[in-house]
UniProtKB/TrEMBL annotation:
Protein name as it appears in the record: CENPT protein
GO molecular function: DNA binding; protein heterodimerization activity
One GO term (biological process): chromosome segregation
CDD domains xrefs: HFD_CENP-T
Subcellular location: Chromosome; Nucleus
Keyword Nucleus: yes
Residues annotated as domain CENP-T/Histone H4 histone fold: 22-117
Record has Nucleus as a keyword: yes
Assigned protein family: Belongs to the CENP-T/CNN1 family.
Primary localization class, coarse: nucleus
C-alpha cells in the first residue's frame, strides 16, 4: 500500500530579519549644517543632540499639522496653501512679512526661482502653474 507523502517543514527565514519600520529622518549633517549657519559659533555634542531631537519633533509636528489641513479640506495631497496657512498660524508669515519675502531672505537663488513666479519677455511667467 502507498502512503501519502508528508510535506517537509522548511524553516521560515523571513522572521530572522524582521525590523521595526523606522520613520524617515533628516540627515544629521543637514541639521548640523543649518544650525551652525544660524548660530555662527561652535556647538557641543550634547547641545547638538538636543537640537537634533527638537528638530525631529518639530518636523514631525509640522507634517502632522499639514496632513490635518489637507484631510480637513478633503484632499489627500498637501498643497502650498496649506503650508502658508500653517506658517501664518505659527506667526512666520504676517501681513508685514509675506511668504515671498521669507523665501527671498532664507533660500538660495535656485530655490527662489522655483518658488516665486517671475515675468519674463514674451509675457510668460516662470514657473508656470
Amino acid at each position: 500500500p502507498l502512503q501519502p507523502l508528508q510535506p517537509k517543514t522548511v524553516p521560515n527565514r523571513l522572521r530572522t530579519s524582521q525590523r521595526k519600520p523606522r520613520d524617515p529622518q533628516m540627515p544629521r549633517s543637514l541639521i548640523k549644517e543649518i544650525f551652525r549657519h544660524f548660530v555662527k559659533m561652535p556647538v557641543t555634542r550634547d547641545a547638538f543632540k538636543i537640537v537634533e531631537k527638537c528638530s525631529e519633533r518639530y518636523f514631525k509636528q509640522l507634517s502632522d499639522d499639514l496632513e490635518a489641513y489637507a484631510h480637513h479640506a478633503g484632499r489627500k495631497t498637501v498643497e502650498a496653501a496649506d503650508l502658508e496657512v500653517l506658517m501664518r498660524r505659527q506667526g512666520l508669515v504676517t501681513d508685514k512679512m509675506p511668504l515671498n519675502v521669507l523665501i527671498e531672505n532664507y533660500l538660495p537663488l535656485e530655490y527662489r526661482k522655483l518658488l516665486i513666479p517671475v515675468a519674463v519677455s514674451g509675457n510668460k511667467v516662470i514657473p508656470s502653474k
